[in-house]
Amino acid sequence: MLLFLIRRTIGFLATIFAVSGIVFAVMNILPGDPTITILGIDSTPEVRATLRAELGLDQPAWLRYLDWMGDALRGDFGTSYFFRVPVSELIVERLPLTLSLAALGMLATVGLGVTFGILAAAQHGRAGDWAIMVFSQLGIAIPAFWLSLLLVLLFAVNLRWLPPGGFPGWDEPLLALRSLILPTTALALVQSAVLARVTRSSALEVMRLDFVRTARATGLAPTRIWRQHILPNALVPIVTIIGMQVAGVVTGTIVIENVFYLPGLGRLMFQSIANRDLFTVQALVVFFAAIVVTANFLVDIAYALIDPRLRSRLT
Amino acid sequence: MTLSRVSFAAALASCTLFAAPVLAETVLRIGFQQEPTVLDPTSDATASIDGMLAHNVYESLTTVDESGTVLPNLATSWDISEDGQSYTFHLVQGATFHDGTAFDADDVKFTFDRAMAETSTNPSKGIWEPIDSVTVVDPNTVQITLTRKDAFFLFNLAQGDASIVAPESADTNATAPIGTGPFKFDSWTRGDRLTLAKFTDYRDADAVTLDSVQFRFITDPAAATAALMAEEIDAFPGFPAPELLEQFDADPRFDVVVGSTEGEVILALNNSKPPFDSLAARQAVSYAIDRDEIIEGAMYGKAVPIGSFYPPHGPAYVDMTGLYPHDTAKAAELFKQAGVKQTITLRVPPFKYATRSGEIIQAELAKAGVTVKLENVEWGFWIDEVYKKKNYDMTIIAHTSPNDLGNFARGKDYFYGYQSDDFDALWAQIKTETDMAKRTDLLKEAQSFIAQNAIHGFLFQLPKLGVYHSGVSGFWAASPVLFQPLAGVHIQ
Questions:
Q1: Inter-chain contact B121–A51, Cβ cutoff 8 Å?
Q2: Predicted ipTM?
Q3: A286-A287-A290-A295 Cα dihedral, nearest 10 degrees
Q4: B213 to each of A237, B182, B205, B485, B489, how far by Cα in Å?
Q5: In what order do the strands lie in the sheet with B75-80?
Q6: CA pair distance B344, B367, nearest whole angstrom
Q7: Is A143 on the interface with B (CB under 8 A)?
Q8: Which of B182, B98, B105 is nearest to B140 (CA)?
Q9: Which run of H or E residues covers position B446?
Q10: B112, B145 contact by CB (below 8 A)
Q11: How far is CA B28 from the centre of its chain?
Q12: B45 to A260: CB separation less than 8 angstroms, yes or no
């Protein structure tokens, strides 16, 4: 177990290091000039040169990267070219929204996906199964941003039940929660459709196995068969997909935050790439990568908890 | 137990007995597409900084009205010397900054010296370039001497780049702006909203009817539409999508106002290399484009065509759209005469007005026998390849600064790749001519010169599309400048 943790930590650091290097290189190769974005196309070259020096952009790229690495190791992720405040401040400001959105999104994904997947498997071949499969097929086919627009049209513009976007902040928890209902739905529906299908097929596969038939033959109640025999054995592929979906949900916030104009990390990422705000992009990519790597790590731990046979992998 | 019950009853009684009728706060919620980067207009050209803060939080010596006419502001009057090179400004009395410090002539001198300094990153060097020195005569009088006459001096002083700042707060204005305007900065949640509150010590506070103003940042046009429809916002003065206006037009809850801006949309031609170093090839482009078709297709009819580089609402405007009327046969003939056989690249930046116009222009030039390769490029790419390296044949861009005819006098290095001694001389005359009538004549001459030489294809004036809830009044229909004073805006 200890060895496993050490290996994982080294892998984590190597991933982060590689990701930051790639982002830095790409952002430097990409055409664009933050000083023109900031000062406009009618600015004079002299003013742009002054600003370039002020932002440290007159230094060679490799030197800037080493500087950034050095500072990052000490917890300083640099200053945003664009907003001219520390990047860490920007991230801390927006973290609560994105984390809540992603957490709610995952919760809804797992809740809806697993529930409907089990229902479909239990109803296998009957109307309920068909209905769930048709809806989940639709869910997979509909792009999240389009679904968002439809939800806004119905619930915000026509019915006026929910706000069309924006976020009042967690100081007003009820209002905040209300404004996250539509974004969470849009984020979770697509992902839960995928999860429902995986849950269904995984459960169906287990249901056909001998030990389930034996359990049935002994006259066990169906709920007990599900709880004790089918689900534990069907869980490994489900957990694998959930782990992958964490990445999907986290990156999905980029689109959702733009459509619902939510002040989260996804929207910041979008803006920063367009503005060539190098350090902000750098920190955000590293942050998102860390979330994905952590999710994978948790999935590995979960395997061991679910299935004792897989515990040997944790060495 | 008894005690707490008594006190609870007392509290309840005091609430009902002494609660004064609560006056509802007048809050105006404005949608904005672009978020500000910092909150200091003197160090950053992002248009939304001026749009939200100039003449609301900050003030300048002068201001302008909706037609662009210069009016007094922090300077209540001024005297101009005989030679037109020395301005004496008499400052308003009783103005204070939001942090309580008084406004006087020292603040003006500080502001100007700061902007003119070697290390300044003020984006509009052109405002400061003609200034020789700034002298404090007394606390209420400032004298500014110029090295030459400057026709645009008083107009330029009204801009957000010339906002008057105080030495006590200038360095922190980027995040905590302090000015002398009718509204003070309240809060800013990046990515979501920026809130201003009425400055109760403003020298003319009684005239301001809004208690607070919220700017909400909504980039996506569909989201902007939903926010207006759901009455989450009251006004969207720079509505991004002409194709979505019809539903607001049809809805009695809204007023749709279409006005003009300072933005000339041009089909820029790279004059520095073939084929557009040839006049015939450029004229061919001018004949090939059909402005009505472009405006209909790209702007849903909501724009005014231009034939040169000057806004149709300006006082010196001459209509040059008839000089090269749409004539595909003539265009084809001129292209042939100029020997244009190669494929021409049209590199289009990611703005809707540009990408939509690009497709139509591609089709129009095809009719005149020229193959256009249309490349939709990202903004960063456009800046590097088109703007900096002039690596393009044609592009589409809006120039949104006022008084920007001087672009054609920026020499071969500018991305137009155009240089003409005649025009340089003409522009030098324009920018120093302070006599209105004479300047108007010169401006007309310049428009005609640019059109005759077909330096670019001139398409249309970028419209200002405003959607307002009925009951909101006082917004400018047109925008002669980047800012919009909100002191005159009312909600019924």
A1: yes
A2: 0.78
A3: -140
A4: 52, 11, 15, 12, 10
A5: B75-80, B86-91, B141-146, B131-138
A6: 14
A7: no
A8: B105
A9: helix B436-452
A10: no
A11: 21
A12: no
Burial of A60 (0-12, 13-18, 19+ CB in 10 A): exposed
Nearest by CB to residue A263, choosing from B44, B190, B384, is B190
Helices (H) and strands (E) in chain A, counts: 13, 0
Hey, is B113 helix, strand or coil? Answer: helix
Give the residue on A whose Cα is nearest the Cα of B127. A43
B35 touches chain A (CB under 8 A): yes
What's the pLDDT tens digit per position in B171-222? 999 999 999 999 999 999 888 899 999 999 999 999 999 999 999 999 888 8
Nearest to B196 by CA among B77, B34, B362, B29: B29
| Nearest by Cα to B96 from B169, B41, B24 | B169
Residue of A83, A165, A259 lying closest to B38 (CB–CB): A83
- The length of chain A is 315
Closest approach of A171 to chain B, Cα-based (Å): 13
Residue B387 DSSP code = I
Interval A23-36: pLDDT, tens: 888 888 877 788 88
Angle between helices A127-141 and A173-207 (to 10 degrees): 120
- Going through B16-66 in order, the beta strands assigned E by DSSP cover 27-32, 62-64
Q: Closest residue of B to A37, CA-based?
A: B46
Phi and psi dihedrals of B477, rounded to 5?
A: -75, -45
> Could you tell me the two tokens for A133?
């499969």
Please give the sequence-ordered ranges of beta strands (E in DSSP) within B270-335, or none if there are none: 304-305
Average pLDDT over residues A182-204: 91
SS3 B110: helix
Under DSSP, the state recorded for B232 is S
Q: How many Cα neighbours within 13 Å face the side chain of A288? A: 23
Residue A102 carries which side chain, given as an amino acid letter?
Answer: A
> How many C-beta atoms surround the C-beta of residue B297 within 10 A?
16
Tokens of B265: 């949309």
CA–CA distance, B120 with B268 (Å, rounded to integer): 31
Q: How far is it between the farthest Cα atoms of chain A?
A: 86
Location of structure tokens 């900031």: A38
* pLDDT tens digit sequence for B139-155: 999 999 999 999 899 99
Give every residue of chain B whose pLDDT is below 70, as ranges: 1-23
Question: b or e along B71-93 (b: 16 or more beta carbons within 10 Å of the residue's beta carbon)?
Answer: eebbbeebeeeeebbbbbbbbbe
Residue type, B292: D
Of the CA atoms within 13 Å of residue B15, those in its CB half-sphere come to 6
Residue with tokens 């994978």: A296
Query: Measured between alpha carbons, how far is residue B348 from residues A274, B33, B351, B417 in Å?
Result: 16, 20, 8, 18
Which residues 248-277 of A have a C-beta within 8 angstroms of B?
A: 258-264, 267-268, 271, 274-276
Question: Is there a contact between A156 and B226 if contact means CB atoms under 8 Å apart?
Answer: yes
